[in-house]
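lol ok so funny story. i was supposed to be doing the assay writeup but got distracted and ended up predicting the structure for this chain instead. priorities right. anyway since i did it might as well share w the group, maybe its usefull for someone
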Amino acid sequence: MGLENKVIISAALTGAVTPTSFNENIPVTPEQIAADAYRCWQAGASTVHLHMRDDQQLGTMDSGRFVATVDLLRAKSDCDVVINCTTAGDHRASDEERMAHLPLTRPEIASYDVGSFNWMPDGIFANSPQFLEKLGVLMQELSIKPELEVFDTGFMGIADYYLRKGVLVAPLHYQFVLGAGGGMAATVENLAYLVRHVPEGSTWSAFGIGRAHMPMMYATIALGGHVRVGLEDNVWYSKGVKATNVSLVERAVRVVREFGKEPATPDEARQILSLK
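and the output, tada:
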């Protein structure tokens, strides 16, 4: 089966917001996050997306926690999972703090939130032009692939601007985030619109937050994209049943195969995403 029939399953393990009081399966320490990442890789995820939490379970950009988690995961000699680190794990962090862990951990992928918006009802999710330029240049220097987090249609134009300017380099990889408060609603119509504007030769993935998780996963696979699952985005497996990261990955593997495709291995994901 060729790469065109392979689907990258990314597991977003923790996020920066949802407390364990909502779901006790959310990993919060470096040890828990690394262990969950390993189990998700065993279950069929080719990529893991990492956030960190502090001792109060608040999102943090503490470089030491990123280093500890990545080191624990890389110490597992049989594990070849692709590591993707966030650059937006704490609204209190400075631009420098949001980037400080990248040269220390050298992930193959890192998030690149393409614009700012009102994340309702809590505040502004700020990604200034100055920050985006610095982040894009640093990622090029470190050979880290930016994952372009797209929350609304205007973000596509911003990505085009930085591509023309040389801050971003083709082929691009888009992550469509649907259902965030203040962002684009999680509908098939909206997803199809975004997909039509993906430049030729670039790749894309998508997910829906909360109850939009399943409809967006089915629509994404039908439209030819890659999928993201995990407790960062959705803490329920079904009504009244709490999810685990592994259970969400296992279901995604089944859905991909029912569709007639196969989950990509980490090395296949590297080829699909043109990772260095």
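The mean pLDDT is 97. The chain has ten helices and 16 strands.
back to the writeup now i swear
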